[in-house]
Amino acid sequence: MTTLLFLPSGDRGYRWLRLADGAIRESDGVPPASDDPVIAIAPAESVALHWAELPVRSPAQAVAAARLLVAEASATPLTELHVAVGDEGEGERPIAVVALAQMAQWLTDLTAHGIDPLAILPAPLLLPRPEEGYVRATIAGAALVRSRTTGFADEAPLADLVIGDTPQHTLDRDGIDAALAAALAAPVLDLRQGAFARRRRRIGIDWALVRRLAVLGAAILLVTLAIDLVRIAKYSFGADALESRAEALGRTGLARGETVTDVDRQLAERLSAVRGPGLGFTTTVAAIYDAVRATPGTELTSLDFQSNGSVRIGVGAARESLPTDLKRTLEAAGFTVEAGTFQSANGRVTGEMTVSRR
Fold first, then answer.
1. Is the overall model pTM greater than 0.90, yes or no?
2. Which residues form the GspL periplasmic domain (predicted)?
3. CATH code of domain 2-196
């Protein structure tokens, strides 16, 4: 059972119709409280109806296009108007325009009576859309007129001036009942759109949705874990490949035929054997020659590389202070220098030094 609540306009107060099993009960005032759905009917005097070709891709596009059309046709600022778009299935689509303040007032008054209507329908759209001419009817005390692209209150003499000689048809009681049933079965336009859309209340827990979300969450976690495992495996395989390549390269540095057990250790042993202990023969001797060149008046008379990595050198100098200068230069280069006894003979100072890694 559905209740049609006709909103007040002018001197006309609330009126309601209740449809149940094909029978209509009509009364004044606000209907008594019940759990039956309520559909509010906006008076024709408060709603301006237009028809226009609008996009059908999405409701948002249709409303945006309708607002542009209304802005051109209305003297009231668009910010003060509520625009709703309907659909009659073919041809031009209906556009309803009502003041924002009026919509807010209707919903506030209905809420005060404990009513949250399923929809708010413009009264003229309760009438069927005629193939031609006009349809007239009086529903719940409201006289209405409707054509294919117009809908308004039937106020004499304005309505007669608009209709003129155009064919018209007045609905009888059976026609009104059929029109109301059709309008409720498939509403052409609901003013409860956008900011005034009815908020849905969820009662209880949607366990099917919870299960779907849980499955989706588990799938996301599994995919994330799989990505990490693939990345780890990729890095591991890459590291193994690099290690194998390094080992293969390392084998080329060992003596031919040598059994490989630990490439790193064996390469270190061979390098130590090639360059010698300590810093190695080449590095140590090069540093000694640099120090001799940096100390004019000194020369090497002998050089002996020891098994422990130190170098014993014989030094000849033109003056007694030069061996000390050479010793300091080697120490500044990072070596430990032990100087022996230097002797002076025939205008030359000679002696030995032991140079080792610090």
1. no
2. 207-357
3. 3.30.420.380
